[in-house]
Design brief:
The protein is 26% helix and 29% strand. It is an alpha+beta fold and 567 residues long. The strands form eight sheets. Strands 3, 7, 8, 9, 10, 11, 12, 21 and 24 form a nine-stranded mixed beta sheet that branches. It has a five-stranded mixed beta sheet with strand order 16-14-15-17-20. It comes from Paenibacillus gansuensis.
């Protein structure tokens, strides 16, 4: 492609609202353009990168035995109501009505549609297992689209779905896709981790893993062990504390202390001159409209995902002041586990406290010398807090947890019968008995990968595309379009490299050398060939974008470069 004809405009500065480095560079390089908040056009350079990512995905999924199809983005609301997700999914589901007043949704995902399709097409165990996938535009009405392609309202996604006759079969399908994901992200040049995760709005009945690209701009926190391979999203990360012994409890009797207007941990810590880790914090939640108390150490934070899973609740949220008063008879800040009539969940870290301070369930009062198990019931215990950096690893009990920021680029789920049961996706087994299909689901944020890769692969001059997904493999630059020797040699190289099957962007523009080099650095094509003043001697400069290594080579030496033989 000759750059003079390429549909691209590079920008010297990124728009002021572009916060993430990837957003800035993709805009400046002319890979994407914003149409509305969270909605982007992919210009030719960006589309070429996306097509290369799609090619890798297709190759690996086909290798894994999956079959590609394409489903409608416009989905009947009845399907979502039948699965129970129409109301539960929330405001991110874009809903609309047609001219006949029928309800539809723009697909954020396709569990309902694929289940209805397979239900219609497969009736016997003989046609299973099967894994089907598509690469398609998805729609989610994000509350706050941000960071360019990292959180958008319209995005490109690969979603796959497996259908098995047994849980053992699902285990195989899950592992098969897990390994395919590892190959995909390795080929895309990502530094990533597969971590234990929460199923979220997709749901399911088994294990689930997220694939995280490590990057500071990431909105997720990944906890990894310094000693073993344990890795988990913060919302699922455990601490090894429950394996540790309990501290020797105090023999001091409990004592009520007057604490006027002292409601927060910080205020209580200052008032009693006690460290936050010596205080028991009691928070009141509403789980499916029923009150429950969660007791954690004062320096810790409640992990609502863990609490929700422990209770098996559909919804969980902090109680409002009126609900707190009704549930425990006291305002927020003075609640405590002693004598509480609602269910009390006690975190493992609280159990290890020899004694502590807690609310007295009385306005302007707290209690000191409180011993868990002596002064209040510890019938419901568990890991109910966020893990913290430096916590003992729950897997090996030897290493410490280290935190990294990550961008979720892939997610694999064991759905079980979450969708096949309510939607009636059944088959006849070898005995002629009707059975429910066992499902798995597997997603990759294709357009998000564009940004995640740039977040990891850039320098202060621009993008550095991994070779496998770069928009072009070689950037050929002629310094002076008025120098006959340069133009002749550049055109010869352009034709020769293209005949060898290489994808070449030929900068034939009548621009200053500085502009051409700056644009080349910004676009991030892996290899640059500069045809300049040595052209009359048949020499060119060969540059690797990643490490800026430069060589002066003849045309023959250039074409013989090993890197070109492997492209």
């Amino acid at each position: 492609m000759k750059q003079s004809k390429l549909f691209v405009n590079t920008l010297r500065e990124a728009p002021s609202d572009a916060e993430a480095v990837s957003h800035q560079l993709l805009l400046r390089g002319g890979f994407i353009r914003q149409l509305a908040a969270g909605v982007y056009s992919y210009l030719p350079l960006g589309w070429r990168v996306l097509r290369n990512i799609e090619r890798i995905i297709r190759e690996e999924l086909d290798r894994a035995g999956a079959q590609e199809l394409l489903m409608p983005a416009l989905q009947p609301a009845e399907l979502w109501k039948d699965s129970g997700r129409y109301d539960a999914y929330g405001p991110e589901l874009i809903r609309l009505r047609d001219r006949h007043d029928r309800e539809f949704a723009l697909g954020p995902t396709h569990e309902e549609v694929i289940t209805a399709l397979v239900k219609q097409e497969i009736g016997s165990y003989r046609k299973m297992p099967v894994t089907l996938y598509q690469i398609q535009t998805k729609f989610r009405d994000e509350r706050r689209p941000r960071f360019g392609l990292l959180r958008g309202r319209e995005f490109l996604m690969k979603d796959a779905y497996s259908f098995d006759t047994s849980w053992e079969g699902l285990d195989h399908s899950y592992r098969n896709m897990y390994e395919a994901y590892e190959r995909i992200f390795q080929r895309c040049g990502l530094n990533f981790r597969a971590v234990e995760a929460d199923a979220g709005a997709i749901g399911g009945e088994g294990e689930t893993h997220e694939f995280m690209a490590l990057a500071e701009v990431g909105e997720d926190t990944v906890a990894t062990c310094s000693n073993c391979g344990y890795a988990a999203n913060l919302e699922m990360a455990k601490s090894g504390e429950q394996a540790q012994g309990k501290n020797q409890p105090t023999t001091e009797p409990i004592q009520k202390i007057h604490t006027p207007n002292v409601r927060t941990i910080e205020q209580l810590s200052q008032f009693l001159e006690a460290a936050p880790q010596e205080i028991m914090k009691t928070l009141i939640y509403m789980a499916d409209d029923q009150p429950v108390a969660v007791v954690i150490r004062g320096d810790h934070e409640v992990n609502e995902i863990k609490v929700k899973h422990y209770l098996g609740a559909e919804t969980l949220g902090l109680a409002d002041p009126e609900a707190i008063q009704k549930a425990v008879g006291v305002s927020a800040g003075f609640a405590g586990p002693i004598g509480m009539k609602i269910p009390v969940l006690v975190d493992f870290a609280v159990l290890q406290m020899a004694a502590g301070v807690c609310g007295a369930n009385e306005t302007d009062a707290h209690v000191i010398h409180v011993v868990p198990g002596r002064d209040f019931s510890i019938e419901q215990t568990g890991d109910f807090r966020n893990a913290e950096e430096g916590d003992r690893c729950p897997n090996c009990q030897e290493g410490e947890l280290t935190f990294y920021k990550g961008i979720e680029v892939g997610h694999v789920f064991k759905l079980g019968t979450k969708y096949s049961d309510p939607l009636g996706a059944r088959y006849l087994d070898s005995n002629g008995r009707e059975q429910t299909m066992i499902m798995g689901c597997y997603g990759i944020g294709v357009s998000r990968l564009l940004s995640a890769i740039v977040e990891q692969s850039h320098d202060d001059r621009g993008i550095i595309w991994p070779q496998a997904i770069a928009p072009y493999q070689v950037h050929l630059i002629v310094i002076s379009t008025k120098d006959e020797a340069q133009v002749t040699l550049a055109n010869e190289l352009y034709e020769t490299l293209q005949r060898q099957g290489m994808e070449v962007l030929f900068d034939d523009r009548d621009e200053r050398a500085g502009i051409k080099f700056n644009d080349s650095d910004l676009l991030g094509i892996p290899y640059r060939i500069v045809v300049g003043k040595e052209a009359s001697n048949g020499k060119v400069e060969f540059v690797e974008r990643k490490n800026n290594v430069k060589q002066t080579l003849s045309k023959e030496e250039l074409v013989a470069q090993s890197v070109f033989r492997t492209l």
